[in-house]
Design a protein that fits this description.
This protein has about 260 residues and is of the alpha/beta class. The chain has one domain: Rossmann fold (3-Layer(aba) Sandwich). About 35% of the residues lie in helices and about 25% in strands. It is built from nine helices and ten strands. The chain has a six-stranded mixed sheet, sandwiched between helices. A hairpin with a 2-residue loop joins strand 4 and strand 5. The protein is globular and about 55 Å long. Bound molecules: adenosine-5'-diphosphate. The site of adenosine-5'-diphosphate has 10 residues, from helix 1.
Length: about 260
């Protein structure tokens, strides 16, 4: 599926001017002496779905965490909708976090809040959305992830797959410009993986810009417009799924695919 569309900037994002919704140039990140991102260049277009694949430790998660500002990068530039990430400017970082949604392996729902309240919380706190409107939005989003009837349920009454779908609804409640998914099915029992992937697939079909680290190779092949293979802190290969999975060019990607296909 190719839903990537070259659109000129949306109103209010004039400086994005037809370029990527996420622009990464020469990004480097070190933990002490360990350089884990060694110069990443990547442009994510509006509506594009990108799968990040690669061995454990290759830097995939660190890259996502840099994009949403959870980690400071050491060198290079990173911008979202034309706004450069600037850790020295707390107001711009708060704004950035509203534009970049992130979903993790662990669902991290607030156990003392109902499902509906979990989804309503951030819009109420951060955007001062009025309760009635936040409730309507939460109901709509829970319906979108197939959980309309769970509004008043407690998180511990839900399966892992249902909790992860609530986490997706919660991220969508902030109406992010881009959604980052970090191995969001890795903590789930195998029979629950499909329901979460189907939700992600529907978001992709609706035109959501998605950047996802995944070990689900069949899913990456089916849903993504572009696959990025990371190796040792660099983008080692990048291209359409049929190219990377069908004709991997480098021995590193060939080995990686052989290892995940068993
Ligand atoms: P991946 O997501 O591809 O498995 P990561 O981005 O999690 O890779 O990790 C890349 C490298 O960075 C690994 O060597 C890891 O040990 C190191 N690393 C990740 N987070 C930290 C941290 N908070 N402190 C020190 N080293 C880290």
């Amino acid at each position: 599926m190719s839903l990537a569309v070259e659109v000129s900037a949306a109103p209010g994002t004039a400086s994005a001017g037809g370029h990527g919704i996420v622009e990464i140039r020469g990004l480097r990140k070190r933990y002490g002496a360990n350089e884990v991102l060694k110069g990443i260049d990547l442009t994510v277009k509006r509506g594009e779905v990108i799968a990040l694949i690669g061995k454990s430790g290759s830097g995939k998660s660190t890259l996502l965490r840099c994009i949403n500002g959870l980690e400071c990068h050491d060198e290079g530039t990173l911008s979202v909708e034309g706004q450069p990430l600037d850790h020295a400017n707390p107001a711009s970082m708060r704004e950035l976090r509203q534009r970049v949604g992130m979903i993790f392996q662990s669902f991290n729902l607030f156990p003392h809040l109902t499902v509906g309240r979990n989804v309503m919380l951030a819009p109420g706190l951060v955007r001062k959305t009025l309760p009635l409107r936040a409730k309507e939005q939460a109901e709509r989003l829970l319906a979108r992830v197939g959980l309309a009837e769970k509004f008043d349920a407690w998180p511990d009454q839900l399966s892992g797959g249902q909790q992860q779908r609530v986490a997706i609804a919660r991220a969508l409640a902030m109406e992010p410009a881009v959604l980052l998914c970090d191995e969001i099915t890795s903590a789930l029992d195998p029979e629950l993986v499909g329901e979460v992937l189907r939700v992600v697939e529907s978001l992709a079909a609706e035109g959501m810009t998605l950047l996802m680290v995944t070990h689900e190779m069949a899913f990456a092949r089916k849903v993504s417009d572009r696959v990025v293979f990371m190796h040792a802190g660099r983008i080692h290969e990048m291209g359409p799924p049929e190219q990377l999975f069908g004709a991997p060019a480098t021995p590193e990607l060939q080995q990686f695919l052989a290892s995940v296909h068993g």
